[in-house]
Amino acid sequence: MNNEQLLDLVKQMTLEEKTAQLLQLTANFYEGTNVEGQITGPMEEMGITEQSVDASGSILGLSGAQAIIDVQQAYMKKSRLGIPLLFMADVVHGFKTIFPIPLAIGCSWDTELAEKSAEIAARESAVSGLHVTFAPMVDLVRDPRWGRVMETTGEDPYLNSLFAAAFVRGYQGDSLKDEPDRLAACVKHFAAYGAAEGGRDYNTVDMSERNLREYYLPAYKAALDAGVEMVMTSFNTVDGIPASGNEKLMHGILRDEWGFDGVLISDWASIREMIAHGAAEDDREAAYRAIRAGVDMEMMTPCYVHHLPELIKSGEVDEKLIDEAVLRILQLKEKLGLFDNPLRAADPEREREIVFSKEHRQVSYELATKSAVLLKNDDSVLPLQPDANVALIGPFAQSPDILGWWSCEGVKEDAVKLGTALQERLTTGGKVQFAQGSNVHTITAEQIAEALEVASKADLIVLALGEDSEMSGEGGSRTDIRLPAAQLELVKQLKAAGKPIASVIFNGRPLDLHGVIDESDAVLEAWFPGSEGGAAIADVLTGVVNPSARLTMSFPQSVGQIPVYYNHFNTGRPLNPEKTEERYVSKYIDSPNEPLLPFGYGLSYTSFSYGDLEVSSNEMTAEESLSIQVRVTNTGERAGVETVQLYVRDVTGEVVRPMRELKGYVKLALAPGESGTATFTLNEEQLRYHHSDLSYRSDRGEFHILVGANSRDTQKKSFRLV
């Protein structure tokens, strides 16, 4: 259908049919899902009529080709105007083939592989009947207490923006209509959900508009520039107004300033939650505020269907707003080709061939190997030698709980376990002996005794520790981000055995690693690595793969430092590292200011040396860029990848500027003894920022160029912007 035909379709719809198009419900409301009690259960609780269900626009959380075919066909038989349903789901880091969590994907610094993972997730989802994914989540994060940090790619706006665009390209391809194995993407959560106070989920967000624009909005804008079809509102307030009713945010910035003309959907029940926030007296006012803010689709509350018709009839809401919302939804359905083929790519036979295929799992494996960060490796304890006699101990030694939160249709039992994979790899004289050691949260004397017995017979201990998947993700906020006490006790007991310890951590957030990192000779951050996680981590441990990942979120010394992030300000009384005894400076008296592990940090099984930093000029103009080069040499005995990072500091600005900001990176794959040159181009546009009047421009003056292996360990040169 062309746009005129879609407009004509809107004109044919009754007001009730139009408001029903704005309603999104879960699968158990619909005929064909074989869920009993839909009339007396959910429909009764929400006060939804069967007529509203029959005319509703989209469905949430159903998957499986045959199930979706059945529901769509039953729905279309009742659809007066032949308007098909949209099927949506949270396909966050894979459909059935689960990839590492997004925070881990960020640590790969590999946007091409991230795009490939989204393409595969889209392929599996589309053949299973889905049309839209609620991804990517691009919220910038600085507080690891918040469980949903696992869904984002980290604390840096530049890197987050690169990944946001990559995920959108992977999900959507070039044409949704011509590529039925793609999904429409929905960027979330607009806006600044990652800045929830205290790291507590759904909590208040309060910041200046300058801070919002400088750090939190860029990744959403990058997703829009990549063509994302949908945006989801966040649960939180922004400047005292819940996002789902925030006209300045949704109309002023998203639609008017940025020109977004796609579908805007609320998060689950967030329109009605304006009442609890104290921003709406009742469902009627919530509907009024949300539709005026430009929210097209209401997820799982009935404010729109109950109250928009009367708000229009009373003249409080212009029916034009409803028509615009319905048109945007119909336009998305047309882009997906649903008017021509309501079943789109849903195909049970292809589903059996494509979903969880060997090819897809291979990409999951590759991404997991590139996402694991080597945090410590004293005395080259890792990689394990082929003839190593290893004691593999800990609650994750043979645990399938390595997929992480939001693993969609992933099945834990399908995941490759670390112990199984490691045992398969140590076959040339080496062996693996197992002990549970502890559970995730509890430990017994018998478990300790067994662990010590197994450890006594081994050359080296590999400890498999971490959070279970319920300890992070949505609703998974924590005030204590150490490993559970039972696991810390296990580490303490095994340390006394006197054997080298290599700890592998499975988790969804940066942790306070005290009690592990000091007691271990080596530490590998595995995150939740996905379906092939056990195989990938085993290959990193045994040196089949040389780790290359770099942290995209700082690890704190303790929870008391949070938020701790690399691109911070200097303060008027900065701490001089050489005068730590000074009191009246910005510092803690019981902790360093610096994080335990900084943004950009990660080790390798080889070593790299940096030559002198070279900059083409000590002056920059608006017309002429700077060329920046550094020679890097692999000084070790293994091939490896070094991620050379470029940071810039604006020394004096109209608004205080961060100590350093990431502006680019180059990955150099080098053989032993080989050298390579990392070359960067820096221009005036990259030096711009939001000033106090929100204008976006650069300042003349001195800048520092900082290049190195992470945000802490860098070389410095200066130039002036003239």
Distance between the terminal alpha carbons, to the nearest Å?
Answer: 54 Å
**Helical proportion, percent range:** 25-40%
Q: Order of strands across the biggest sheet?
A: 9-6-5-4-3-2-1-10
Q: Oligomeric status of the shown chains?
A: single chain
Number of strands: 27
Query: Whole-number radius of gyration?
Result: 27 Å
Number of helices: 21
Low-confidence segments, ≥5 residues, pLDDT <50? Answer: 35-41
| Shape summary | globular
Average pLDDT rating: 96
What structural class should be given to the helix and strand makeup? alpha/beta
Main sheet summary: 8 strands, parallel
What proportion strand?
A: 15-25%
Identify the notable features of this structure and list them briefly.
29% helix, single chain, alpha/beta, 722 residues, eight-stranded parallel sheet
Describe the fold and architecture:
By secondary structure, the protein is an alpha/beta fold. Helix content is 29%, strand content 18%. It contains 21 helices and 27 strands. The strands form six sheets. An eight-stranded parallel β-sheet has the order 9-6-5-4-3-2-1-10. Helix 8 runs parallel beside helix 10 (218-225) and helix 13 (283-293) crosses helix 14 (303-313). It is globular and about 75 Å long. Residues 35-41 have low confidence and may be disordered.
Topology:
Blueprint: H1 3-12, H2 15-21, E1 23-26, H3 42-46, H4 50-55, E2 58-60, H5 65-78, E3 86-89, H6 102-107, H7 111-127, E4 132-133, H8 157-172, E5 184-190, H9 209-216, H10 218-225, E6 230-233, E7 237-238, E8 241-242, H11 247-257, E9 263-265, H12 274-277, H13 283-293, E10 298-299, H14 303-313, H15 319-335, H16 348-354, H17 358-371, E11 373-377, E12 389-393, H18 418-425, E13 431-435, H19 445-456, E14 460-466, H20 485-495, E15 501-506, E16 522-525, H21 533-541, E17 608-610, E18 614-615, E19 619-620, E20 626-634, E21 640-650, E22 661-670, E23 675-682, E24 689-690, E25 696-697, E26 701-708, E27 714-721
Parallel strand pairs: 1-2, 1-10, 2-3, 3-4, 4-5, 5-6, 6-9, 12-13, 12-14, 14-15, 15-16, 19-27
Antiparallel strand pairs: 7-8, 11-16, 17-20, 18-20, 20-23, 21-22, 21-26, 24-25, 26-27
Helix pairs in contact: 1-15, 2-14, 7-8, 7-17, 8-10, 11-13, 13-14, 17-21, 18-21
